Amino acid sequence: MNLIKKYPVFMSTLLGTIFGYIILHPFVNIVNDFFHRHEQGHMHLHWNAIAVAFTNSFDSTYWLNAISYVILSGIIGYLFGKTISAYRTISEQVEKFSIVGMNAATIVHDLNNPLNGVIGFAHLLKNKIDNQEQIKACDIIEREAIRISKMIEDIKMFVQATETIELSKTPADLKLFLKNIIFKMTLYCKVRIDSTFEGQVLIDRDYFERVLWNLIKNADEALRLTEDGRIEISISESDNSVNICVSDNGPGIPQKILKNLFKLGQTFGKKGGTGIGLYNCKKIVEAHRGKIWLDSEVGKGTKFYIKIPK
After folding, report:
1. Cα separation of 123 and 60, whole Å?
2. Residue 174 has pLDDT above 70, yes or no
3. By CB neighbour count within 10 A (0-12 exposed, 13-18 middle, 19+ buried), where does 184 fall?
4. Contacts of 98 by beta carbon, 8 Å cutoff, 6+ apart
5. What angle do CA 66, 70, 54 make, to 5 degrees?
6. In this predicted model, what pLDDT tens digit does every residue of 286-310 receive, in sequence order?
């Protein structure tokens, strides 16, 4: 049993060849013997005849047949062993991911602690120096550390796989809220904000920042190879809702990708993309009793729309 566990492919191949030689090959010979003996179709089972047919199967005249069944059974055994080995590997990976999922909060907390230290000291150092180049370097350190922190929070939300998100809503001026988010980001393109909504909206600031951060970052990455790339964000109101649109004039997304873009693991146009960001965006917006969707045309750009209650 230990050998089977340790060498599943080899042992299943070996057992398959033994099965082919000792069982399958004699069984086929017995069946053939009966069919040839009773040409008129009258089948009568005689145990003595079975014993003779079984013994004759190991005669040298049947070696070619025996070898063919040994090879066939060996191949089947090999495939069976590969299946067992693959299943065992998948089971081990699932178990490891389950452990990570169960301890996600602790892992993320441990990762965020040193990041918070980096962010805090970069901010402190920035206020203690006068050299503009050094201040700029501190800004970059602070922003990139914040970006990593956001990515870690996305992973935490994914591995915990909670059905509901507990929100802590506070009133927010969306235009000012967006400006603060953009200030903390390192972007390739400039962002223009156009707002006709003058009021405030109830949102969970931490969660909603992750939504807007993801959408803006995705648009910025899509524009890296676009000449005169632009990101425009509009804020408006209709009835009892606030509407946000994040648009870019990038390469766009093919129609066949659009319908699955918010599904877990679906990504487009990002090297090393995981498909977690937009999946989490959808969960967060829906937790705010809103909805998120997009329109895109290849060669013209993409628009993400968010609609949430006031």
Report:
1. 87
2. yes
3. middle
4. none
5. 45
6. 999 999 999 998 888 999 999 999 8
Decide: 167 and 287 in contact? Cβ < 8 Å.
Answer: yes
Rounded CA-CA distance 24/121 in Å is: 74
Q: Enter the tokens of residue 40.
A: 């008129």
Give the tens place of pLDDT for each residue, 248-265: 998 998 888 888 888 876
Query: Quick one: 178 exposed, middle or buried, by C-beta within 10 A (0-12, 13-18, 19+)?
Result: buried
Q: In the beta sheet, which residues pair with residue 202?
A: 171
DSSP codes of every residue in the chain: -HHHHHSHHHHHHHHHHHHIIIIIHHHHHHHHHHHHH-TTS-----HHHHHHHHHHTTSGGGHHHHHHHHHHHHHHHHHHHHHHHHHHHHHHHHHHHHHHHHTHHHHHHHHHHHHHHHHHHHHHHHTT---HHHHHHHHHHHHHHHHHHHHHHHHHHHHHT-SS-----EEE-HHHHHHHHHHTS--SS-EEEEE---S-EEE-HHHHHHHHHHHHHHHHHHTTT-TT--EEEEEEEETTEEEEEEEE-SS---HHHHTTTTSTT---S-TT--S-HHHHHHHHHHHTT-EEEEEEETTTEEEEEEEEE-
- Tell me which residue of 138, 113, 114 sits closest to 125, measured CA to CA: 138
Quick check: pTM over 0.85? no
Q: Which amino acid is at 11?
A: M
The closest alpha carbon to 306, from 288, 206, 147, 265, belongs to 288
